[in-house]
Predict the structure.
Amino acid sequence: MNKRIDIAGLEGARAIVLHPEHDRLPVLLRQLRAIGLEVEVAWPQLPTSAITADFILYDTDVGHDEQFPWPAGQPPMPMIALVGSEAPGRIEWASRTGADALLVKPLAASGVFASLLMARQSFERRKALLAEVDALRDRLSARQTIVQAVTLLAKKTGSEETAYDDLRQLAMAWKMTMEDAAVQIVKHKEATGENRGIS
């Protein structure tokens, strides 16, 4: 028997198909298994093991928010919507739940491989963008804290330029970043209600 070549890194991946019983469902399951995935079928609720799945394929015709134990649009794995009804409300719901790819019914073997790859790439891209947004928020928050700390120090020195230098010197003396030093200064102010005693 010829050994299957896992060109897409899908061999052994786990997929959960959240779909009611249907005469076309076995076609999809056979194709997923032929690609190399371990497949579990569930309905109407996801099993607790779903949190460690590599893919979720879910029915959009009768699906609903309560089926997913994570916040809407924040799935921890790639999601593939199985779309029968093209009603705008159902498509909007699929998008809101975090669909990374679509498979249009009737369920068939064709398109499954492509949707798995598309879903994984879309998911990874979305994760990278969210991480970038979080990093930017952290940087913005750190800058705001530095401004706050400089303002507090300037009340003692009378000069923001001198206060900025003081913050840099404090950070070096405390062996921490300026951002962390700024956090300490602001916390000290909040705890004491005054800006004395910072040294």
